[in-house]
Write a sequence for this structure.
């Protein structure tokens, strides 16, 4: 007799926890805000723009930003 209540409680807990799994919006992401503010016509496919945005907004260095932008372009 307790089993249906347990199943209902577990189901409710799962639904509540999954409701909190919404993706972060750009307004909450400081990097996205920085890119939008400093590079209004940002094209993520443009390697030079990607590297410049990475250096400016993520405090990266040329080597790591170039690698990250190359990996992003392959996706």
């Amino acid at each position: 007799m307790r089993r249906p209540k347990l199943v209902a409680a577990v189901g409710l807990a799962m639904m509540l926890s999954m409701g909190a799994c919404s993706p972060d919006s750009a307004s909450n992401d400081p990097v996205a805000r920085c890119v939008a503010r400093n590079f209004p016509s940002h094209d993520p496919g443009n390697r030079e723009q990607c590297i410049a945005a990475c250096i400016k907004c993520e405090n990266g260095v040329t080597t790591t930003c170039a690698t990250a932008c190359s990996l992003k372009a392959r996706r």
